[in-house]
Amino acid sequence: MWWLKRIEKSLGEITEISLLLIALGVMIEILFGDAVPFFGRVATNLTGLLNTLGENGLVGLTASGIIFFLFYRAIGFATYEEEDFETALIEGAKYPELIREDQEKKLERSNNTLVNNQIESVKQATRIKINKANETIRKLKEQGKTEEDAIVRLHRGRVRNLQVSMEEKVNELEQKRPV
């Protein structure tokens, strides 16, 4: 297994040299612009890589963390025990749960708003229909009709049916409130 240790050491040295070259490339690009051969556009490419990782949200954050962990471990900037890494992964696993809970709360508020608007719409539409039916009853009474006349009873029944229908629709919408 000595050869495995040697490969690990060699890869660590190559990584360290690569990081130093990246740092040198960034410095040269800052000082002389991106027209310098071999070192041109290092900062631009590095910025692009970081933007790509940033656009991917949690996946990018996780990838960045793993990359930094591997770099630091490879060149000896920091050493971590396996249980430290496990603890970090466990803590990181809690983050999606927090995001999920937050999204659920937002969806619940949105759903409640939608249900409230639908209930209010049903109530207003029913009130308009009831007012129209009551206005028709009033006009019929002005014409000499009584409560016993069939046409008046028809409109009174319509008012009752509208009220019952509204209550049923409101109850049905209330059932949709829990997501």
Please explain how this structure is put together.
This protein is mainly alpha-helical. It has two domains: 2-81, no CATH class; 98-175, no CATH class. Helices cover 84% and strands 0% of the residues. The protein is built from five helices and no strands. It has helices spanning 2-32, 42-55, 57-75, 82-142, 150-175. Helix 2 packs across helix 3. The longest helix is centred in the middle third of the chain and has 61 residues, at 82-142. 3% of the residues are buried.
Global geometry:
elongated
Strand content: under 5%
Instruction: Give me the strand/helix succession.
Output: HHHHH
**What ranges have pLDDT less than 50 throughout 5 or more consecutive residues?**
none
Report on the biggest sheet: none
Query: What is the overall number of helices?
Result: 5
Q: Would you report the number of β strands? A: 0
Q: How many domains make up the 3D coordinates?
A: 2
What structural class is derived from the secondary structure elements? Answer: mainly alpha
Q: Helicity, in percent?
A: over 70%
